[in-house]
Amino acid sequence: RRERNRILARKTRLRKKLFFEALQRRVTNLKTENELLRGVAQRRLGDADRRAALGGLHSELPKVVTENMGQATEVIKKTDFAMMKLLTTAQKSFVITDPSTPDNPIVYASPEFTKLTGYAPAEIVGRNCRFLQGP
């Protein structure tokens, strides 16, 4: 039991690290995009328009990212919980196809899958999964 708890704790730490690193990359990308847009605005707009457009903007990162790690951790926990809930639900939602026949028709759709997609089992069974991609 103790070993299982250690393994679960390690997986949770790795998942949180992954989410935090992804959040940091996203913030960095948004900051870069913001600087590029700022440069475009400074080159193409007049002084009055520039002040109106850029007046309320800040060049610093939000404190939740840079200083308040407790709040950042809470954001990650909420995201982590939402992702785990989504994955748990998604694991129940599946179809089974028959690869031994041409075009891999669906032979079974789980009740969660029919609930998620809104299709009745009769509309799904016998068709290829490509119909889920849309028109």
Summarize the structure.
Keywords: Chromophore, Flavoprotein, FMN. This protein is mostly helical.
List the helices and strands and how they pair.
Elements: H1 2-44, H2 47-54, H3 63-66, H4 69-92, E1 95-97, E2 106-109, H5 111-117, H6 121-124
Helix pairs in contact: 1-4
Structure report:
The protein has 135 residues and is mainly alpha-helical. It folds into two domains: 2-85; 95-133, no CATH class. 67% of the residues lie in helices and 5% in strands. It contains six helices and two strands; from the N terminus they run ααααββαα. It has helices spanning 2-44, 47-54, 63-66, 69-92, 111-117, 121-124, and strands at residues 95-97, 106-109. A two-stranded antiparallel sheet has the order 1-2. Strand 1 (95-97) and strand 2 (106-109) form a beta hairpin. Helix 1 packs across helix 4 (69-92). The longest helix has 43 residues, at 2-44. The radius of gyration is 24 Å and the shape is flat. The model has no long low-confidence stretch (mean pLDDT 76).
Main traits of this protein?
135 residues, mainly alpha, 2 domains, two-stranded antiparallel ribbon, 6 helices, 67% helix, 5% strand, bZIP_sf, flavoprotein, PAS-like_dom_sf, PAS domain-containing protein
User: In terms of per-residue confidence, which ranges show pLDDT below 50 for 5 or more consecutive residues?
Assistant: none
Strand order across the largest sheet: 1-2
Q: Mind describing the biggest β-sheet?
A: 2 strands, antiparallel
Q: Strand portion, in percent?
A: 5-15%
Quick one: how many beta strands? 2
Q: Class by helix and strand content? A: mainly alpha
Oligomer class: single chain
Q: How large is the count of helical segments?
A: 6
